[in-house]
Design goal:
This protein has eight helices and 13 strands. By secondary structure, the chain is an alpha+beta fold. A seven-stranded mixed β-sheet has the order 8-10-7-11-9-12-13. It is globular and about 65 Å long.
Length: 333
Amino acid sequence: MGEIINLQHGGGGEETNKLLANVIFRHLGNPVLNVKHDGAFLNLDGTLAFSTDSYVVSPIFFKGGNIGELAVNGTVNDLSMCGAEPKYLSLSFIIEEGFPMEDFEKVVLSIKSAAERANVLIVTGDTKVVERGKGDKIYINTSGIGVVNPRADIKIQNIKEGDAILINAPIASHGMAIMSEREGLEFESDILSDTRNLNLSVKNLIEKFGNHIHFLRDATRGGLASVLNEIALETRLGIHLFEEKIAVEKQVRSACEILGLDPVYVANEGVFTCIVDSDRADEVLAQLRLENPDASQIGFITSEHPSKIIMESAFGGKHVVHALIGEQLPRIC
């Protein structure tokens, strides 16, 4: 039997030092982290964005990713939605006693890869170990700091009537990757999570279009519908959507149908909503399609039906897209 995490690994003594040296610092070490102080010394100029999130996904390994890269990408993307360039992350683990050391190292290696792809440094962190039965394998918290692009002006108050609503990729892949694994569903090809960093995509948009980009939000828990309902309620404006413009991969749609789920409520980890001046929408869409040809303009902001979302089908029928009530997919991120 391979080595496992035990309570001594979280006790602050010799076993803790071995865990840090043999796994954390060996894989994640950098000049800032290697100072090994209680905090990190950072040099940043400009307006800062700060975000934090915790990750409790089950299963922790899924098709297309795992909890480690999810934790990095999630916080990187939250900063990106603020118009910031992510720079530094903290990383904290809560590990259940008995968790295999081999799996822990896999998680750490995925964190390393995700951080390198996003060009961010892990600069401080913490590790706690809890007794068997008092956790569920591993939980991760990441906090991040980024410098806001001076060309960015991303806030919900900028949204106005006539603005175009765009998304960068097909929806619902992450949630269905998790759920198909939980339910043991098999398809002709695997459904893969869309977890990825979005910071370069957003940086390119802001550099090219500046304050024509009014609002950005990644459509994670609660999916696209939850993001848009939040916008409609906060702005007291209406939203008109075109159902046929919202891309969903074939296998993902099939999984949603089997499980009785509407794709617009399913979680994503690589999809963001972009609300932009209508006269620049075609240019912004062309930029998004350089990365994903399925990026699309899915609707517009209207003064009609305030605070409501109306979805129009390909046949002209219309229905209200209500806010999600309760937790549709628990432990999804």
